[in-house]
Sequence to fold (773 residues):
Amino acid sequence: MAGPYLQQPSFLLATLKADCVNKPFAQRCHDLETVIEEFPAKELHGIFPWLVESIFGSLDGIIVGWNLRCLQGRTNPTEYSVALDFLDPSGPMMKLVYKLQAEEYRYDFPVSYLPNSPITHHVSPSNSAYFILVDTYLKCFLPTEGSVLPPPSSNPGGAIPSPTPRSPAVPFTSYGMHHTSLLKRHIAHQPSVNADPASQEIWRSETLLQIFVEMWLHHYSLEMYQKMQSPHVKLEVLHYRLSISSKHHGSPAQSSYQALHAYQESFKPTEEHVLVVRLLVKHLHAFSNSLKPEPLSPSAHSHTASPLEEFKRVVIPRFVQQKLYIFLQHCFGHWPLDASFRAVLEMWLSYLQPWRYAPEKPPQTAELLPRSVSEKWAAFIQENLLMYTKLFVGFLNRTLRTDLVSPKNALMVFRVAKVFAQPNLAEMILKGEQLFLEPELVIPHRQHRLFMTPTLGGSFFSSWPPTITDASFKVKSHVYSLEGQDFQYKQMFGTEVRNLVLKLAQLICQAQQTAKSISDHSAETMASHSFFSWFKFTPSEMNGSYTGNDLDEIGQDSIKKTDEYLEKALEYLCQIFKLNEAQLTQMMMKCGTAQDENGKKQLPDCIESENGLILTPLGRYQMINGLRRFDVQYQGDTELQPIRSYENATLVRLLYRLSSALNERFAEQMNVLCSREDFIGRFCCYHLKNPRFVHKIRYSPVLKDRRNQNWGPRISLRFLASYRTLFSLLMLYFIASWFYIGPVGCTFIILFSYFLYAVIMTFFFEGRKPHEH
Fold:
């Protein structure tokens, strides 16, 4: 908090500062309440900046404050209750504000000190004192029932007078980053005892809303946003980003775009920030929807609506729409591609559905059916067309880059599709697009008109332009005022966006197939688990290959949820965009035939080259999102492959040396035996010859000459280093001891049994090594 500090701290201020160290929190608040009640404004003026810092913290971080974002009733009920009482709209803190305001004391708060995002804490934001206070202030100053409560009286003479309404020439606050102070000129107005009481009722509501909008939707200005949409500027900013890591200094041309880049990148809202904006959006819808319906009788029109009712009528388009749109655009373009985007998504969907916060209740007979969006919301949809269409396209582009096998990502697609599939909503959005695309030459009186940006920075009491009744002009004004006169509109129900929806539908089908494959793989793995799984090896490990996936850990329940979300999302998308059933069925069949005879997925999308397979951009996307993959197979000398977790490292090395010595000593004899065409030759090949790699499995794109290399006949004793083999032998010797069979006899039985087994396998499975079963 920046404010006019006294040159020499008063005795009162020094006493209060000492109490902060010596007294408990509850006692300090009680003493402050007494001071505020008993001392005059002249004395309180000096302690106000310090009190604000002690509550909310200092800009330099030295003073932490009361930490309202972490203060919860469950963990600290006493301080929680005391803080809420002290900061309540009718509590001591606001009494101090009214007392100082009546005496014309002024405090500057530079716009540059406004927070870009709240600090993230490991607590539930909705239960914190900060959120409870925000909700309380919204309900108090923007009431859905009744009127705004008058400020508490601090002197016997009556209520504290309020400032006069501001003139249109004096804007309320500085939008963007062009001005330096917030609320300065507003508080500078002299109070007027003769001011209209109804107008005095509104100025506090308007002030609160403007402060919240500046704090939570404070980004760059509308002019800056429109400048950033220029293709030329986007290209220059991209060049600037690419040159950041360069050793050379940026050129003068690049330096002119450094500020534009900084404007975008410096604003990084958090989930907590977005949640409090959603709280504001939901309450503003409820506040606006509490507007009394216009009377039908002609005589009633002669009565002027109250300022509060008029405020409800214009509160969203005049104070919130522009900044919220820029805020959402920034979030859609810069938020990480992870599940935390759900907070932004729900805030966006809350704004798109004002009917959810209307006072009327749906009939009980229709509770089980989707509620149709009433035609009375057509004006809201048309005047917020970009919120529905351009942001939907932004969501599509984000979704096409995410992993839809993840249940959280699938849920987000389901939520958006469900909202837009509400009966009559798509039709009203389409009607809004048609109004926007209506040729300007059709209506003569609308020619040569400029679509000007509305003055959203002024006061509610500023002069209002006449009501625009032309629906098409309203839509055009909304679009061009936000995006500029040169904006090229992309139709939500046009061919380009429809193709994006078809890509999303294909991606959903692929994700469903992937989830099914993971589910089948998990079921097979669970069925093949045995007692030996305690020793951390599985049949796939015994074959020297890894067929697992990071998504194996999401679990059967999550896979089931993913499939349900994606199935319903696809159904809703078909309803919204009237997708051709035949085309969709063909697409799903194409995804279904993506499995080969072994029930495995196809290779990622690749192209053939002289060096083997090369991944295409689609193939990289498929691998990143787990939609397709290559089987990882060791293709070198099997004796030299890395030591596995189920093998004893010392035994592997010793047995390799022994095998190498035997192979070197008897190499010529083994070649002769394996060259024979009789049963002995086949028997020796079965035991001594390493099988050639065949093309029945899917390999990663490596050099082809590796796959067909023949290492010749040789002895391999590495299987004896496996813990599984050692444990099996130990169990056999242990069981044999029960029947009074000694180690020598047991060894003879094992060798004889294996000989019989090898003879049978030689007849039926030529060329396969026994320890690779």
